Amino acid sequence: MELFAAIHDYIRISKGPCEVYPAPFAVKLFHDNKTIVEPDISVICDPNKLTARGCTDAPDWIIEIISPSNPSHDFILKLHLYADAGVREYWIIDPRQERILIYNLELDNFSYEMYTFQDRIKANIYDDLWINFKKLNI
After folding, report:
1. What pTM did the predictor assign?
2. Is the dihedral of CA 70, 29, 90, 46 positive or negative?
3. How many other CB atoms are found less than 10 A from the CB of residue 103?
């Protein structure tokens, strides 16, 4: 919740067009009505994607916190789904390893970096949002 609050506060203070939603929040990634996910945190910057039932189409930024029972779900399955759907940025937070994998999924700039819970990390979809994981209670 602290990570959600940091993102929410940044959006509120900067008066940006984006909205942040914690799970449970349904995201229909494709128009086939079959691929529905519930990311731990979703940031949507296009209000036309929002409905009374959740989000239709890819959020701009998705954050997943690894489940110890099925980490491959977030590392493999969801990474490919989110990249194919057009998610711009995907963070995978692994509390057991105290690491964060950041995937920039934009087609012209696909890249990834790994950080620890001691790092201050820039959200790539914003010019000036930095999350200091050392100050978060995760």
Report:
1. 0.93
2. negative
3. 20
**Taking a C-beta distance cutoff of 8 angstroms, is the pair 60, 53 a contact?**
no
4 and 137 in contact (C-beta within 8 Å)?
Answer: no
**pLDDT for 18 beyond 80:** yes
- What distances in angstroms separate CA 117 from CA 4, 61, 71, one per listed residue? 16, 19, 18
Helix (H, G, I), strand (E, B) or coil at 50: strand
The counts of H helices and E strands in the chain are 3, 12
Tokens describing residue 120: 């201050």
Picking from 54, 91, 96, 99, the residue whose alpha carbon sits closest to that of residue 74 is 91
Residue 47 to residue 19: CA distance in whole angstroms: 8
Q: What digits encode the pLDDT tens for the residues 30-63?
A: 987 788 999 999 999 999 999 988 999 999 999 9
What does the chain come to in residues? Answer: 138
